[in-house]
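Q: I have 207 residues here and want to know how they pack in 3D. Can you give me a structure?
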Amino acid sequence: MIKGYCTSSRGMVMITVIMIISVVLLLALSMVTVSTNHYQMVHSSSSGIKAYYLAESAIDITTYELLIMSEQAIFYFLTDLQSYKIQYILEGEEGDTILLKDYHPPILENYLEDKVVDHLSIIERRITQPFEEYHASHYYEILIEGVSLSTNHIQMMGIGSYDEARRFIKFVVQLPEVIEVGVDALGLPEIEVVPLRVVSYYQTFGE
C-alpha cells in the first residue's frame, strides 16, 4: 500500500512538473512572440520616420531649386522693367514735360514661364541612396502633379521610401507675383514682388 502510494505520489509530481514546464514554455513563447512583434513595430516605425524625412528632403531641395529659378526670373524682369521705364520716360520727354503714353511694362508671368515652368522637367526626378547613413535601400522622388498659370500654382508630391516603408507629402508652391503699392512722381505704378512660397503642405496615404 505504501509502495502504491509512493508510486502514485511520484506520478502526481511528474504530472505537476510537466504542467509547470508547459506553462513556462507557453509564457516563454508568448514573450518571444510579443518581443518579435514589438521589434517589428519599432522597426516599421523607424523605417516610416526615415521615409517621411526622405519625402521632406525632396520637398526642401525642390523648393530651394524653384526659389533659385524664380529669383533668376525676377532679376531679369526687374532689369528689363527698369530699362523699359527709362526708355519710356526718355521717349516721352518734350522740354521739361514728360508726355505720358500707353504704359506696357514687362510682365513677370512671362519670365516665370520662361525661366521656371518650361524647366520643371529637371525638377521631376528620383534620387536613390542619397544618404550614406541610411543603410537600407532608400530614395526620394518628386512628381509634378499640375501647373496653373492662371493662379501661378505648381502642385507637387514628395515621396520618400526606406526599406519597405513609403511616405507621401503633397505640397503646392505659389510662384512670385507682382503687387502694386502706389504710384511714383510720374504717375507710374510702383510695385513689389512677392517671392515664391509654399501655400499648401500635407501628408497623404498614396499617389
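Q: Anything worth noting?
A: Helices lie at 2-92, 108-115. Residues 99 and 184 are 15 Å apart (CA to CA).
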